[in-house]
Amino acid sequence: MVEWQNAEGDVTKGAVRWEPVRSLWWTGMTGIAIVGGIATFSWSALAVFLAATACVLLFGHSLGSHRKLIHDSFQCPKWLEYLFVYAGVQVGLSGPLGLVRQHDLRDYAQRQADCHPYLRHGRSFWADAWWQLHCRLELDAPPHLPLRPGIGDDPFYRLLERTWMLQQLPPMILLYLAGGWSWVIWGGCARISAGVTGHWLIGWFAHNHGPMHHVVDGAAVQGRNVKLASLLTMGESWHNNHHAYPGSARLGLYAGEWDPGWWVLTFLRKCALVWGIRLPRECAWRAELRQIDDARMVSSTPRPTLAAMARDLLAVAVHVRAPRSSMTLHGPFATLPEPALRSLVGDRIALARDPGSARMALRHGDVTVIGMPAILLAFASRNFSAFVLAIILLPAALLGEMLRDRLS
Question: b/e per residue, 340-356, with b = 16+ CB within 10 A?
């Protein structure tokens, strides 16, 4: 989750003004989609509309614009990131930099005690539609919210920002060559109209109606989960979950919450095309966040086998006494004074103060050891005698961890 320490500004006072370009863009695309769509309807054009809309929403908006560009919740090769973000431009909302700025402003404002109704979808359905689809908000004293390093100065993103409307032309040319004007209208104009309108529509419902698992105390507005739209939005409609864990790459966090974006990410991870995927347990602890029901979060990874757990233990154990090895211990002991922690683990292990973590975790590179084995291995770093004792006790700790995992 992005933090703005010196944002200042005031997100409660400002004027909503008609924005001609934005208004004419949506009106033109929607008008062409309605009139031209009726005149040129064909089943092939409808299929193109459904396929194109699904692709840009899944790979472009959900994975490219939101989970990657805005929240950086997973890592991937630069060429794949560019491809995802370019697909995000095809949704037709704005350029990538403008989208990040608008999202950051809403994100910051909604976490304050109060904010302008424009920023929290706080007006009636039709009034909010006019505001979001045709207008812009001009704050009297906008906060300073700098872009994350590597975004604002990226030449490719700056090019897309200047030409995002023109970027709709290459796909439309291909559609015309493949299927004529019918495919252009349905695969281009109707797709853009549906993407922009749907983005506002889900935003309004996701801040006004729907169930919640979590409450963010002191926030101007709470996110809501829009269950019926999970597939249509590629998982983006689990907005209460997103308000709770903004940096998580997975949005459907509980049983029965379908998240196509997460499904694709797990597939790409198996193909070694994405890595460093952030989940709720990697998100910063927030004192203001509390769960209001007894739903249990589903596991984001398969339960490890005994062989896999033993392999991870071995990978850490062979480095735990190495003088230049880098390991970090996380966990609920983080609130203890550092001298007390050092008496347990010695000086070789880095400590991460993470009171929001439910269990101890020892991390070495990409390998993480959880629970009692983590404590034993951290203890093993003290000296050779501690290492021998820890190795003797590790098999019992490993079996206990396996049993705990099966019973949980």
Answer: ebeeebeebbebeebee
Question: For residue 303, which of 408, 214, 186, 159 has the smallest C-alpha distance?
Answer: 408
Calpha distance 16→123 (Å, rounded): 12
Position 391 confidence tier, pLDDT thresholds 50, 70, 90: confident
Alpha helices for 215-279 (secondary structure H) = 239-244, 260-270
Task: Name, in order, each residue with C-beta under 8 angstroms of 219's C-beta and a sequence gap of 6 or more.
Answer: 110, 111, 112, 113, 243, 288
Q: pLDDT for 217-240, tens place per residue?
A: 999 999 999 999 999 999 999 999
For residues 398 and 406, the answer to whether their CB atoms sit within 8 Å is no
Measured in degrees and rounded to the nearest 5, phi and psi for residue 275 equal -155, 180
Give pTM, 2 decimals: 0.73
H or E segment and range at residue 76: none
Q: What is the dihedral of CA 284, 64, 152, 155, to 10 degrees?
A: 150
Encode pLDDT of 63-116 as tens digits: 999 999 999 999 999 999 999 999 999 999 999 999 999 999 999 999 999 999
- Which of 151, 167, 146, 148 is closest to 78 using CA atoms? 151
